[in-house]
Amino acid sequence: MRRRTDLLSGKPAPERADAARNRAKVLRAAAGLFATRDPRGVTMDEIAKAAGVGRGTLYRRYPDTGSIALALLDEYERDLQERLLRGEPPLGPGAPPGRRLAAFYAAMVGLLEKHGHLVLGAEAGRMRYASGAYGFWHAHVRALLVAGAVPDPDALTDTLLAPLAAEVYLRQRERGLTPGRIAAALARLAEGVLPPE
Amino acid sequence: MRRRTDLLSGKPAPERADAARNRAKVLRAAAGLFATRDPRGVTMDEIAKAAGVGRGTLYRRYPDTGSIALALLDEYERDLQERLLRGEPPLGPGAPPGRRLAAFYAAMVGLLEKHGHLVLGAEAGRMRYASGAYGFWHAHVRALLVAGAVPDPDALTDTLLAPLAAEVYLRQRERGLTPGRIAAALARLAEGVLPPE
DNA sequence: AATCAAGTGGACATTGTGTCCGTTTCTGAC
DNA sequence: GTCAGAAACGGACACAATGTCCACTTGATT
């Protein structure tokens, strides 16, 4: 039997009890480390030590620190994704695209404020685009552009997502900007691209 | 005498002949390496080997590969900076701010197309903001926003520069977008924020 | 309670970093 | 020209982190 799989349903076997326990330990320890020091300096070894598991155990599941950060992020981001799809306007469906984009921006600012350091820990660069979450944001923004009848939405989507890069956001915060001002600036951007009516 | 300096003018002593020779060798070798493989994989050791200099020599001038990439970039960027300050409109002074911003975007797309891989080699993340060049772009965009009487220009500046991150640009290129389409999208962004008159 | 795949953990080889310091090469003075 | 001191050089070294490997343990299944 290859990889203990239910051959009928095709579902993977459930996670073993000790594995689940360790997964939790790892994530908890990693969250602590990422929050404490500069996330980019966190090492696989440290996480293993902090979680009280062996090196090999850690590598079994996560190839590098970035994917651990990503795993943590996914948890946080899922909630926002839900609200985008089925929440109240203007975040959810119902409001005009420009408004929705601005609301999305505001929500993302909230996320970045809380978890920006984590995104940074995900060795942002290329990694970010690999994340499932990025694909989701991309699809969302693109849909809004299409709804707003903007020309060549494909070319604008990544452009409009760029200011949400953690480096950019944290940079702005360091410059002394408040989340509110940043969100306001993004709202103006949204209205500039997707004018009302 | 501390660091062989002209005490009257305060100018640093001229570079020694062997030093200059090695500097050139290093930059040439590094440019080759960065262009060939993934710039993020290039190592200090490799550069030293390729340049035919010792490890210590390399470290004397550059603390890491990122600053070597930055040194190469600075050279390329200086030309554009010149044209922004004193060139013909719409890039240089004279055109309305929206136009100038769009022209700036177009020029940057050109730069990214040629040297995007290098920017990537500069370990983009935080490093980028440390570069003198970034400060320059920032000042330029900010001035345009002020000229256009946009509210809270400080909050918008980094936001508008974000789409010019090398990761974003290269990502778009990988998606199949042409430089032209990307520049056009950026132009629309510029006009959205700085509408004509 | 027996079986065995899945999971564990730490030792190991490897690779890159950054520093240190004895040696070589320049430059300006005489 | 040659001499002296400063600056630059380069490779050896100590260290840190990576990722792999495999003998051992644990948990689910019968």
From TrEMBL, chains A, B:
Q: HTH tetR-type domain: from which residue to which, for each copy?
A: 20-80
Q: Which residues bind DNA?
A: 43-62
Q: Which UniProt keywords apply?
A: DNA-binding
Q: Which InterPro entries match?
A: Homeodomain-like_sf, HTH-type_TetR-like_transc_reg, HTH_TetR
DNA-binding listed as a keyword = yes
Q: Which GO terms describe its molecular function?
A: DNA-binding transcription factor activity; transcription cis-regulatory region binding
**Coiled-coil annotated spans:** none
Name of the protein: TetR family transcriptional regulator
Q: Which organism is it from?
A: Spongiactinospora gelatinilytica
